[in-house]
Amino acid sequence: MSEIGIAVAVEARKAAASRVLPWTTGILGIGLAALTGGLLAAAAAGDERVLARLGPLAEAHGWALLVGTAAQILAAGGFGACGILIAWLYGREFADGTVAGLFALPVRRWSLAVGKLLVFLAWAMIVAVGLTVLLAVLGIASGLPASDPDGVSELVRIPVLTLLTAFLAVPAGWVASLARSVLAGIAATIVLLIVAQVCAVLGVGAWVPLVAPALWAIAPETVPWPALLGVLAVPVAFGGAIAFTWARMQLDR
Amino acid sequence: MPEPRVELRGVRREFRGGAGVHGVEMAIAPGEIHALVGLNGAGKTTLMRLMLGMLRPDAGEVLVDGVAIADLPARAWSHVGHLVEQALAYGELDVRDNLRLAARLHGASRSDAMTMADAAIDELDLTRYAAVRTRRLSLGNRQRLGLAAAIQHHPTLLVLDEPTNALDPAGVILLREAILSRAAAGAGVLVSSHHLDEVARIADRISVMNDGRLIGALDSGSIDLERAFFALVHADDVHRRAA
């Protein structure tokens, strides 16, 4: 097996046995379903505060309303979950004191760092599928037509948004590696979330990678597709930065 | 003359404030057990970190089997085992899984890793704890696990920093036997310890480190090792103060 293959196998085993991964996944799934269901129920009951918060979405109906509402929650909550998970994946080696054991091995540290990133992205893919199925079940359970072709086209935005959100959280892994701290990675996640909110309020979101996926998921026509492609540069650039940081690491602090 | 398993040539690494390692020369031959003793802060752990690539020297070079570690191919590290600071042990995994992962990280195939882990569990007498999550282990058993991970792939260079930490007397005997068997098979072993009597039982050479320098050697056959150790350290301190 190749070096990267061993790294992925080892990191996948560690992640699968951890409590952080299932808890993060569970909280994200349950939180998304509960909040989406609650908001839609409140909107259906004519709650003016909720309708005001939903903005233009309040005019939508059926699957478009469900997916648009879920996308709003997922853009922020999913980013938080992804940021926490990737910060833990890298920062835990320092918190647990296992980092010294990752030196002087035939599997180089940059391979281990890439292995962690691949495990994180694989998790994001599984979560993307899981959340889509969850929202489909929620929609059908709340009476939306199962055979509606528009429902499928609306729901497709959920896995795309989940993956793009995971890509945007990769910088948190870099900060956790650089600072050698899980908390630093989580702090970076919070700061990025605030920056995204500020950009959205200022209306400069469409071409800002941090904001474009959320805007696209809520209102696809407002974001040109090249702007979404720009998001792909984030995991490439910061994945490279993580690999470099781990390759050059010294235990000097 | 066989190539040393590891060799340090004029290695220097200094930290802010002057601590570190200042121009160390050292070589460990195949089959040799070399003990490193010194007071806390003498530079033993820094020296070991330099040997294992955890730190890069400001000057000098470290060679493993005659190759500078900057040029060492990645696969060459599969012949190195170490326990410096904490064990490579993840709390959510049990002892057997931790050992299998450590073996895989040393380049073993999946099936070889299973065999190695089982043999190491047997050697370090961890059978009762094989299926116990590491976070539930006592400090001593966690140390046994770290030692098992370091030796299970039969390295030709073994570096152990204070390996008797937290071990009970039975664990100390198992460790001693494991070190002797690896050395008998041709491994070069560097072991640091505060227990002078313990290292005297197994070491071929005992080097004394003080203030980042190797200042002399102790005769493992000497009756009063402690007195000889403190005499060397005191003489070095006086010499440095006078300089």
What's the end-to-end separation of chain B, in Å? 38 Å
Number of domains of chain A: 1
Q: In the CATH scheme, what's the topology name of chain B?
A: Rossmann fold
Greatest interface by residues involved: A-B, 25 and 34 residues
The main pleated sheet of chain B reads as: 6 strands, mixed
The string of secondary-structure elements of chain B, in order, is: EEEHEEEHHHEHEHEEH
Contiguous uncertain segments of 5+ residues of chain A: none
Secondary-structure-based class of chain B equals alpha/beta
Fourth-tier CATH superfamily name of chain B: P-loop containing nucleotide triphosphate hydrolases
Quick one: CATH class of chain B? Alpha Beta
Q: In which range does the helix fraction of chain A lie?
A: over 70%
The ordered H/E elements of chain A are: HHHHHHHHHHHH
- Number-wise, the strands of chain B total 10
Report the portion of residues of chain B in β strands: 15-25%
Number of extended strands of chain A: 0
State the main characteristics.
heterodimer, A: 253 residues, mainly alpha, B: 243 residues, alpha/beta, Rossmann fold, 6-stranded mixed β-sheet, 4-stranded antiparallel β-sheet, 36% helix, globular
Write the SSE topology.
The complex is a heterodimer of chains A (253) and B (243).
Chain A: H1 3-17, H2 20-44, H3 48-54, H4 62-95, H5 109-141, H6 149-155, H7 157-168, H8 170-179, H9 182-202, H10 212-218, H11 225-229, H12 233-247
Chain B: E1 6-14, E2 20-28, E3 33-38, H1 44-51, E4 59-64, E5 67-68, E6 80-83, H2 95-105, H3 110-123, H4 139-151, E7 157-161, H5 169-184, E8 188-192, H6 196-202, E9 205-210, E10 213-218, H7 225-242
Helix pairs in contact in B: 2-3, 2-4, 3-4, 4-5
